[in-house]
Structures are given as structure tokens and as C-alpha cells.
Amino acid sequence: xxxxxxxxxxxxxxxxxxxxxxxxxxxxxxxxxxxxxxxxxxxxxxxxxxxxxxxxxxxxxxxxxxxxxxxxxxxxxxxxxxxxxxxxxxxxxxxxxxxxxxxxxxxxxxxxxxxxxxxxxxxxxxxxxxxxxxxxxxxxxxxxxxxxxxxxxxxxxxxxxxxxxxxxxxxxxxxxxxxxxxxxxxxxxxxxxxxxxxxxxxxxxxxxxxxxxxxxxxxxxxxxxxxxxxxxxxxxxxxxxxxxxxxxxxxxxxxxxxxxxxxxxxxxxxxxxxxxxxxxxxxxxxxxxxxxxxxxxxxxxxxxxxxxxxxxxxxxxxxxxxxxxxxxxxxxxxxxxxxxxxxxxxxxxxxxxxxxxxxxxxxxxxxxxxxxxxxxxxxxxxxxx
Length: 385
Ligand code: NAD
Ligand code: MG
Fold this sequence. Notes:
Blueprint: E1 4-9, H1 14-25, E2 30-37, H2 41-51, E3 55-58, H3 64-70, E4 77-80, H4 82-89, E5 96-99, H5 107-115, E6 119-122, H6 125-141, E7 146-148, H7 151-159, E8 168-175, H8 185-188, H9 193-196, H10 206-214, H11 216-229, E9 236-240, E10 246-252, E11 257-261, H12 267-275, H13 306-317, H14 321-337, H15 345-356, H16 365-383
Parallel strand pairs: 1-2, 1-5, 2-3, 3-4, 5-6, 6-7, 8-9
Antiparallel strand pairs: 8-10, 10-11
Helix pairs in contact: 4-5, 5-6, 6-11, 6-14, 10-14, 11-13, 13-15, 14-15, 14-16, 15-16
The structure holds nicotinamide-adenine-dinucleotide and magnesium ion.
């Protein structure tokens, strides 16, 4: 069997690094062909020297020379800039893209890979939040497998193997609740970046860690689920499950429920996306039913964690509203991480953008880009960044 040729877009991030761990543990199955990063030259260069891709792309053009020099004489091509990311996704030198760029920036390269007929291991949920209709339509047109990497969606996708999507009654998305589970606004008002970055069960990039703390992550995941599994807001139930052992569930029309379980370890869904539709052995830690011995379930507190409510509203409204929500959220999280605004102010910023930016019922791809830019400019003007 020939090796699967892998392109990792966002290789220096949390998902990117764990993807390389999975590949390194299975050298006979995979080869690394493309690696990309935005700023982290040192790690990108080290990864390139270790895994020997054909091409590396550094997003930030100011860092191009540095990468070029570090890799001179290796035979590895170096490119730089946003356009190069997209062009590289259009090359025919790989089979599967792991889409692990964070935020809206991942949209263009992922769309290009879909047009290029490549299998996508999709970690970048923002791509579906922003332009899910276009992404799904293009995937269908080009007969592309979109295999979710997000643990909840991987769980549902695994539960759906051999099943008919029309027989889904409900999807139960589990949520850990994040580091502030059970907290009220009088506590949250004083929360700082350091607290928000301490997730109890997962070690992730900064943006998704803050999204997990505000429950926006679960809201984005509801929108992601809508597109991946063709379900409505009413068919998606969020359940707080602090142990993160059940990664999500599907309830079918006959009342039967399927759950996918395991330790909270992103390498499992990453490996599944890399090997799909096959499975391969791994030696990651296993759940032994003793630690934790109890699995608990509860309702989310959307009165306190209003970002989840806003995301549900955006999902129900449709059109460019999820795109506006996402753009304002990216600015809000950025401002929070820079200590420019407080934890609860993130919600206000998003809500104002959703009221202010013109609604479009049936947006084109270009409309999405414009709404994204408008929402960012507006949100940034409120926080002076
Ligand atoms: P991260 O911040 O650790 O890494 C992001 C990667 O994207 C880095 O390689 C960075 O260089 C690159 N990048 C950042 N901005 C860029 C830009 N403007 N242009 C091009 N590249 C850029 O993030 P992460 O935690 O690895 O998350 C990546 C994606 O996966 C996110 O969409 C996140 O929601 C999703 N996801 C992550 C996890 C997790 O456990 N980390 C779980 C589920 C889903
Ligand atoms: Mg998730």
C-alpha cells in the first residue's frame, strides 16, 4: 500500500503538532508533503528538517528570508504569504489536508483543497461556521470526504458509519463546561487571560481555549454540526459532561442512542481522520472505567454564558449571521487575550456586531468576505485595536 501524502496547514499549532505525533508513530502509513505556519519560524524549520516535506509556507511575509535561509540546501521549497497558502493547497502533491489553521484565515486554503479534490481532515471549525453552505456544496460537487477532527464531530461521524443521516432524531453535543463551569457573572467579570487559558481536560491553542471558557466553542460546534450532519438547531442538544469521556452522541428515530467514548486526547480523532475509513492501532492512554468512575450530565447555563445563546441565535437566523458572529468573536478573543477587554465584554462586542452589520439572507462567497471584514472593523473600533 502506498503511503498517504499529508499536508498540514497550521503545523505549528496544537492540532498541527499532534498530527505530526500521529504521523511519526505510523511512518509506514504517511508521508509529510506540506507544512505551513504563520509566525513560528523556529518550530516550522525544525519540523521541516525532521519530516522533509516538499514545501513549507510561512504566512507572515516578513519571515520569508529567515525560513529560506534556514532551509537552504535541503531541497525543500519555501513560499510565503496568504496567496501562497492558497496556491499550495491547489497543488497535486498530497492526498489529505489537515486543516489546522485557526479562524477565518483557514477558509481560503481549505476551499482550494476541496476544489482540488483532496480529502480534508477538518479541525478548522470556523470554515464551516462562516461559509458552511458553500463549503458543503463544493465538497459534494468535488466528491470530497470532509472528515471532522473536532472531537465531538469525529464522535458523531464515527457513530454514523453504516447509518442513514435521515434517521437522526437528535445530536447530543457534549461540552466539558470549561474552566468556569458553575461560575456566575459576579465571578466572570474579574476573570483574566491566565485563568481562561487553563482548560481542565484539553491543552489547546489560545483562541479555542478562550472559546471553551465562554462556551462560544460549543456554539461554533453547533453550527459546525448543522452543516456536517444536516440537522437543525432544534435537533442539536448541548449537554455539560465535565469528564469529557463521551465525546458526543447520536439519537436515532427508533430511540436508540450511540455514543463514542475515550480519553480526551485529540490524537485519536486526528488519527481517525488520517486513516479514514480504516482504523489503525494506537498506544494512546485508554479509559479504564475507574478514572473517572462516574460520568455526569447537566444543562448548560446559557443565561451566564451568553455566547452560546448568541451562537444559537446566529444559527437560527442563518445567512451571514454566523459569519458576523465569528468575526466579532475573533476580535473579541484577541482583545481579551491582550487584556484590552474583560471576559463579559466579549459577549457585548459580538452582540453589537450582530445588530450593526447588514444581514444578508443568501450570501455569496464574496459577501462572506465582506461581512467578515465589516464585522472585524466594527468590533475593532469598539475596543480600539
Ligand atoms: P493554534 O493557535 O495552536 O494553531 C494555529 C495554527 O494556525 C498555527 O500553526 C498558526 O501558525 C496557524 N495560523 C494562525 N493564524 C494564521 C493565519 N492568519 N494564516 C495562516 N495560518 C495561521 O490553534 P489550534 O488549537 O491548533 O486550533 C486549530 C484549529 O483547530 C482551530 O480552528 C480550532 O478551533 C480547531 N480545534 C482545535 C482543537 C484543539 O484541541 N487544539 C480541538 C478541536 C478543534
Ligand atoms: Mg470540540
